[in-house]
Write a structure and sequence with these properties.
By secondary structure, this protein is of the alpha/beta class. The chain contains nine helices and seven strands, in the order H-H-E-H-E-H-E-H-H-E-E-H-E-H-H-E. The protein has a single domain, classed as Beta Polymerase, domain 2 (2-Layer Sandwich), CATH 3.30.460. The protein is globular.
């Protein structure tokens, strides 16, 4: 599976396209829907699932230094909830999330995505002005399409972050859903 195939899978999925159109309607700066929204679609396809794996939330991120208030994110979530009430929306401005994550400030949404815990989760999609699906993968797509769960370079460089990675993969227990995954542990 290559980047073009991933984009095709998303374009052919009306549910995903409706979610992308809803997020696009907010006209956010440097916005993406990321993480499980993309990863789960790839893993479901590679596991030949007939039904979509439930996603705990739809992560919409954006980067806007002019308004870093958490209340702005909640307002955006409400707007999305009004558009698609059955979707578990989560909206975060990456211009402030470095504070929550206790890391230096991010320079963009792509910079933030590159610093997610797992390479297979460090993915984002959005629609351009002509509704073409755009996919970013700052850590590449090799791990996600080869069903490998590994820490991102950002997490590898810090022992404390590696502990967070380990806690996350234990908590998420993705292998119980997608049994062909190969999970790489940080301290093996």
């Amino acid at each position: 599976m290559d980047k073009g195939k991933i984009i095709s899978l998303i374009k052919e999925d009306e549910w995903m396209m409706d979610i992308l159109r809803s997020a696009k309607s907010l006209n956010l700066l440097d916005w993406w829907i990321c993480a499980g929204f993309v990863r789960s679609k790839i893993w479901d396809t590679l596991h030949h699932f007939d039904e979509r794996t439930p996603i705990p939330d739809i992560d919409v991120i954006y980067y806007d230094v002019t308004n870093r208030k958490e209340s702005a994110e909640k307002t955006l979530e409400e707007m999305l909830q009004n558009l698609m009430p059955n979707i578990p929306w989560s909206v975060k401005n990456e211009a402030r999330m470095h504070i929550n994550n206790n890391v230096p400030p991010y320079s963009s949404s792509m910079d933030a995505i590159s610093k997610f815990p797992e390479t297979a989760t460090a993915l984002g999609v959005k629609l351009d002005e002509k509704d073409n699906v755009i996919l970013i993968a700052p850590c590449g797509i090799s791990d996600v399409v080869h069903l490998e769960v590994k820490p991102t370079p950002f997490f590898i460089e810090d022992r404390q972050r590696l502990k967070i990675y380990e806690e996350r993969i234990t908590k998420k227990n993705w292998k119980s859903t997608w049994n062909n995954l190969k999970v790489f542990h940080a301290f093996d």
